[in-house]
Amino acid sequence: MSKTGNIILIIFAMCLMVSCGNRYKDMNGKSVFRYNESAGITSLDPAFAKDQANIWAVNQIFNGLVQLNDSLGIEPCIASRWTISADGKTLTFYLRHDVYFHDHPLFPGGKGRRVNAQDFVYSFNRITDPEIASPGAWVFSPVEVFHGKFCFTALKDTVLEIKLKQAFPPFLGLLSMQYCSVVPHEVVDHYGKDFRRNPVGTGPFYFKIWKESVKLVLLKNPSYFEFKGKDRLPYLDAVAITFIVDKQSVFMEFIKGNIDFMSGIDPNYKDELVTRHGSLNPKYRDKINLTKQAYLNTEYLGFLVDKSKTGAENPLSDKRIRQAVNYGFDRVKMIKYLRNNIGIPAINGMIPSGLPSFNPGIKGYDYNPVKTAQLLTEAGYPGRKGLPPLKMMTTSSYLDICKYIQQQLTESGITLEIEVTPAASLREMIAQSKVGFFRGSWIADYPDAENYLSLFLSRNFCPEGPNYTHFSDKNFDKLYESALMENNDSRRYKIYRQMDSLIMEEAPVVTLYYDEVLRFTRKCISGLGSNPMNLLKLKTVKKSLIVSR
After folding, report:
1. Potential cystine with 449: which of 172, 210, 419, 496 (Cβ 3.0-4.6 Å)?
2. Residue from 166, 178, 173, 170 nearest 203 by CA
3. C-alpha to C-alpha distance for 339 and 353, rounded to whole angstroms
4. Contact call for residues 218 and 238 (beta carbons, < 8 A)
């Protein structure tokens, strides 16, 4: 049998094994990491790495100039180092000499060729090409355009220059996104749109088989350029991804040992797997490890504060009413009883706890019904009387939380009416400023607080931008612009905290909680780690296999 045939046979056999037990053996490193993707994967082309399912798979096959560590620090990847000009507008990247694309028949001799700076110029221009219609084109909006061309320049084979319109410190974080992966022009030009299922990158694993809606198999890249100590990565022999839709079935496969990893927790098995206090059910402690990690997702309620849209007579145009709502319910109990203590009560601003610029010293809102009553009186509703009902729109997924808030606000003298709307319809109505009070969430695209604070920038009014509340404040806008000119992280974070404090004072939102991600792995898995972006990185994972008794 051929070498390739042997590998496939090994993968098939190992995918059928029950992988974990009380005794483990390495078996010469032959191991397959198995996880399920209920949402399905639509493309393995980094140009379309928009949702988590695609991002996780793409991250195993491709690399970019830079990458994130588990603390969200920017680290070298294909770029070994970089410099930023004094004005913050020119970034120069120096590439490694030992990075090669995966072997493919389209390369001379079928061997992967070395990556050069022109490959990045090609890859980045492809993302910005309107004909490609990549959802990641916005990533390069800070880049200068000269005579209709984005300013990506290969100065040498190993030197890439990018010029920005103005200083934008978060840009390095943007470059860590999977959209910014390098791709080979020979393969992309050959396959065209079908590159989505014929991917060739530089990553720790290379593409082998994809039977859509059934299984995707990636094999170890034996020539991968990254090492851990003296060990060339990755350790795993392969990655196998299944596409079981039913979440309860996925859970049962995990418990039986046929899946090695799950991220997040579904209501169908939440109380079975996790205790009321957010820890692992003791009955599974000999089989499963649980890792809990801050996740860059702030859940909130949003107010449309634009009087031209809501009318001056709208009670929510008065910030005292918005503040009264903020004080009117107990976030700590909400997290404890509705989410099994998964999440952190959002009493410290819009910036979530997983970001380096998060500051627990920022004063947000805790539960204070006395303060709610006081603010209602100051707003012209003494004795908690006379305030018309407030109408909030949400989706069915968050109805339990909204009903909890409704009940507590009623005790504080605020009547809340809830309307449940399909998610797609609600998103469209919010984007068109047709909802005065709504439940929302913001998951970070890149690891910088600017991603959250841009939601309140005057020039970002929806539908053109993400300012769904139509909040506008000249001081906030000035602070935003000054933060963009500050390359020193500590000084920029100080400005971010000023901006976050201003948002809390004006209360265009009610911050609910900072999300957390739960990762469940079989005992045989090590080296997976966790990070606030919930990015799946498998290059350092090891898997021990059961020994026959």
Report:
1. 496
2. 178
3. 17
4. yes
Domains and CATH numbers, the chain: 1-54+204-260+524-549 (3.40.190.10), 62-193 (3.90.76.10), 295-516 (3.10.105.10)
Single-letter residue type at 232 = R
Q: Are 106 and 139 in contact (CB under 8 A)?
A: no
Q: Do residues 233 and 9 make contact, with C-beta atoms less than 8 angstroms apart? A: no
What is the reported pLDDT for 276?
86
Report the distance separating Cα 536 and Cα 522, nearest Å.
16
Pair 436, 316: CB distance under 8 Å: yes
pLDDT tens for 240-274 read: 999 999 999 999 999 999 999 999 888 778 889 99
The structure tokens listed for 220 are 């170890």
Which residue ranges in the chain fall short of pLDDT 50?
Answer: 1-29, 547-549
Show the beta-strand stretches assigned E in 199-258. Answer: 205-211, 215-220, 227-228, 231-232, 238-242
The answer to whether residues 548 and 18 touch, using CB atoms and an 8 Å cutoff, is no
Task: Give the span between the Cα atoms of 4 and 481, in whole angstroms.
Answer: 55
**Which residues are 543's β-sheet partners?**
525
Question: Could you give the angle at the alpha carbon of 459 between the alpha carbons of 453 and 465, nearest 5°?
Answer: 75
The C-alpha atoms of residue 172 and residue 448 are separated, in whole angstroms, by 10
**Among residues 384, 385, 354, which one has the least CA distance to residue 372?**
384
Tokens of 100: 């090669």
**Are residues 53 and 212 in contact, defined by beta-carbon separation less than 8 angstroms?**
no
Instruction: Spell 252-271 as b/e; 16+ CB within 10 A means b.
Output: ebbbebbbbbbbbbeeebee
Q: Which value, in Å, is the radius of gyration of the alpha carbons in the chain?
A: 25
Query: What is the distance between the alpha carbons of residues 34 and 351, in angstroms, rounded to a whole number?
Result: 34
pLDDT tens figures, 293-332: 999 999 999 999 998 888 778 899 999 999 999 999 999 9
The pLDDT of residue 320: 97
Tokens of 493: 């974070």
Phi first, then psi: what are they for 137, rounded to 5°? Answer: -60, -30
pLDDT at 384: 76
- What pLDDT sits at residue 17? 40
CA distance 516 to 482: 31
Residues 543 and 525: beta-carbon distance below 8 Å: yes
pTM assigned to the model: 0.89
Query: 146: which 2 tokens?
Result: 């000269």
Taking CA atoms, 453 is separated from 215, 272, 371, 448, 492, in Å, by 40, 38, 27, 9, 13
- Cα distance between residue 268 and residue 111, in whole Å: 48
Which of 240, 254, 253, 250 is closest to 522 using CA atoms?
254
> Tokens 């919930």 map to which residue?
534
Quick one: which H or E segment has residue 336? helix 331-338
Please choose, from the candidates 398, 392, 387, the residue with its C-alpha nearest in 3D space to the C-alpha of residue 417.
Answer: 392
